[in-house]
Amino acid sequence: MRRPSNQPNATDGASRLLWLRLTEPPTAIANEGDRHSARLLAGVLLVLVTLGFASAIVQILAVPGFTTPFAIIVGALLLLGVAYGISRTKHYRLAAVLASLVPVSAGAAVGLVAPADPVWFAFMGLGPIVASGFLPARHVGGVAGFTVVATLLVLFAEGALSAIWSESRRYRRSTTTRRPGPHSWSSCGVTAESSERRCACARRTACRMRSR
What we know:
This protein is mainly alpha-helical. It has a domain of 127 residues. The longest helix has 31 residues. The protein starts with 13 loop residues before the first helix and ends with a helix.
């Protein structure tokens, strides 16, 4: 009888046996498609948590003033660790929801305290990616909407939207041709006194032409 491809065997290497032990879903998940999704989610979270901790340690050692973002990232990685634990149960979809929201929330928090670091924006993009792989379409749309709102709130809080709006209004004003009003002679290099002399001269010329 042929064994299932993901069941451990005595001939498997130690690394494969360890990986199966860390990612194999519980027997409570009977559907093979659900088992594949749970297994993949557990593997993705395990890799994210491992690489995330390694990256955070390197940055705290190499980047001055990285203490606050480091604390936020470590908190997010701990929550992803909780999601990994949930993914090993029959409630793996709940783990997928948590794994989708944590990167967005952590990215927004880092964007508020360190807006010059572009990593926060890329980190927020992990949320919709994870959701699209493990959640139904309506949940993916919800995570994407949450990501957009969080991004706009961070940009607004940092004044980026205000700066963009001011620059846009300045550009529209510069490209719009305006006729000088009655009180705008001085802005064109013409004083009020010189304009009155010109008007008087024009009236005298008109009177001479009528007298002829």
